[in-house]
Design a protein that fits this description.
Number of domains: 2
Strand order of the largest sheet: 1-2-3
Bound molecules: zinc ion
Shape: elongated
Number of strands: 7
Oligomer: single chain
Low-confidence stretches: 143-177, 193-198
Number of helices: 8
Strand content: 15-25%
Radius of gyration: 23 Å
Helix content: 25-40%
CATH architecture of the largest domain: Orthogonal Bundle
CATH superfamily of the largest domain: lambda repressor-like DNA-binding domains
Order of helices and strands: EEEHHHHHHEEHEHE
Largest sheet: 3 strands, antiparallel
């Protein structure tokens, strides 16, 4: 982390070095370690301190450990599920809810996901068909759990699209934000019935 313009909190020297160390914390009577706890050392007077930027990074790492210890998915695990489903952060928020910036915040450990969101992500990740159903619900196309559609949907011709069938959903809909603009245009041209969403 660049530390230019950082001055020692004790002697105001600018000879400050960024350091990392293993630091032990306690959460709910259990110790845990943050392997890369960020702090600064003044080379003039030896004072150790944490800058606001380092503090923010440390807080995110500590919060991530808290949620792992609470049995919740880590930021990295959430990002992994989202990527596996082929979703941008914005598209993931549209499908799973939680607000426009929810996934950015979950993944950066700025906000801890609710238990309900955590379970939803795990189910969507591991049970076939759940993600597809959630996706249709987010589009208001699936109105009841026993798969009733508000409108007739048909399957996209996957063969012509040359993309993974997991990424094109029933209803001839291109998930918003999943593909690049160029790819979306390509898909729309190669299959006139496709409808973009978003
Ligand atoms: Zn100093």
């Amino acid at each position: 982390m660049p530390l230019d313009k950082i001055h020692c909190s004790a002697c105001d020297s600018s000879a400050v070095e960024a350091m990392v160390a293993v630091e032990t914390f306690t959460y709910k009577h259990t110790n845990f370690e943050v392997e890369e706890f960020n702090y600064s050392v003044c080379k003039e007077c030896g004072t150790e301190f944490v800058t606001p930027k380092q503090g923010k990074l440390n807080d995110q790492k500590i919060r991530d450990q808290h949620r792992i210890m609470d049995g919740l998915l880590s930021g990295r695990a959430i990002r992994g599920i989202r990527k596996k489903l082929g979703l941008t952060q914005h598209a993931a928020a549209q499908v799973f809810g939680g607000g426009a910036n929810a996934f950015s915040k979950y993944e950066k450990c700025e906000v801890i996901q609710s238990v309900a969101m955590d379970r939803l992500l795990r189910v969507a990740d591991s049970v076939p068909g759940v993600y597809e159903a959630l996706y249709l619900i987010s589009l208001k196309l699936l109105v009841a759990p026993n798969i009733q559609y508000k409108q007739t949907v048909s399957l996209c011709d996957y063969g012509e699209c040359e993309v993974s069938d997991a990424k094109i959903l029933p209803g001839n809909i291109i998930p918003y934000g999943v593909f690049s603009k160029k790819k979306e245009k390509q898909l729309k041209t190669s299959n006139k019935n496709l409808i973009g969403y978003g």
